[in-house]
Design brief:
By secondary structure, the chain is of the alpha/beta class. The chain is 52% helix and 13% strand. It has a single domain, classed as Alpha-Beta Complex (2-enoyl-CoA Hydratase, Chain A, domain 1), CATH 3.90.226.10. Pfam families: ECH_1 (PF00378).
């Protein structure tokens, strides 16, 4: 099964997409005909640019905090459902992966990315805590010191650099090579001993779930605190006005 994030040109998340992502993996778990899942983005420019900053500004200026709280519940369901997905998940990162897009990319069991595309957890750049999974997964995949370097700055890595640091499985120079890596692995896994493959994945994810499932609520709570900050409002305004934000640490 192929799931495509479709909101061209950057495939930024919007409320309906976020809601669907929060339950689609639970639905797939109950489908006996699905053996492997490939998650990708539409087009060849971006896997996903993450959250829509203009929508962030709308929420803040209208005090639509209920929408934010719904999003936080959905974010928790999304991480939980991916960790509990019994079938292998391959992320085909066909372009830039930012914010939530970066989190989705690294939550795959296998993650292959165009080597010139960029991946970054950009939460701090919009005045938010990296609370929707990045601060959990990046340190486990690439080590705490390197993860802090990128999570505390929001700086990007290329797909090639991300593969070298262990953040993703591998990178590809062309779309054809990317497809060969992703769908070649999908075919190999689908043709394998499904019960054994799925049970082995579940065994590995038991360790991840023990580490992560008790933490995500606290991380999303920290993100909510920063959502209410003046710095986040300033970042949203600055994006809309096409200028550099002037953060005050408030």
């Amino acid at each position: 099964m192929v799931i495509t994030l479709h909101n061209p040109p950057m495939n930024a998340s919007f409320p309906a997409m976020h809601l669907e992502l929060s339950h689609i993996f639970s639905t797939i778990n109950r489908d006996p005909d699905v053996k492997v899942v490939v998650l990708t983005g539409a087009g060849d420019r971006a896997f996903s640019a993450g959250g829509d900053v203009k929508n962030m500004l709308r929420r803040l200026t209208t005090a639509d905090h209920a929408a934010w709280l719904r999003g936080m519940r959905e974010a928790k369901d999304l991480v939980y459902s991916i960790l509990r997905l019994e079938k292998p998940l391959i992320t085909r990162v066909n372009g830039h992966a930012m914010g939530l897009g970066a989190t989705l990319a690294v939550l795959g069991d296998f993650s292959y990315m165009i080597e010139t595309a960029q991946i970054a957890d950009t939460h701090v750049k919009v005045g938010l805590t990296a609370g929707d999974g990045g601060s959990m997964m990046w340190p486990l995949l690439m080590g705490f010191m390197k993860a802090k370097q990128y999570l505390l700055t929001g700086d990007p890595l290329s797909g090639k650099e991300a593969a070298e640091l262990g953040l993703i499985t591998g990178s590809a120079a062309t779309m054809q090579e990317l497809d060969e890596l992703c769908f070649g692995m999908a075919d190999r896994l689908a043709g394998g001993a499904t019960l054994a493959v799925n049970a082995t994945k579940a065994s590995i994810n038991m360790l991840l779930r023990r580490l992560l499932e008790g933490v995500i609520e606290a991380h999303l709570g920290a993100e909510t605190l920063t959502y209410l900050s003046k710095d986040h409002l300033e970042a949203a305004k600055a994006f809309n006005e096409k200028r550099t934000p002037d953060f005050k640490g408030e």
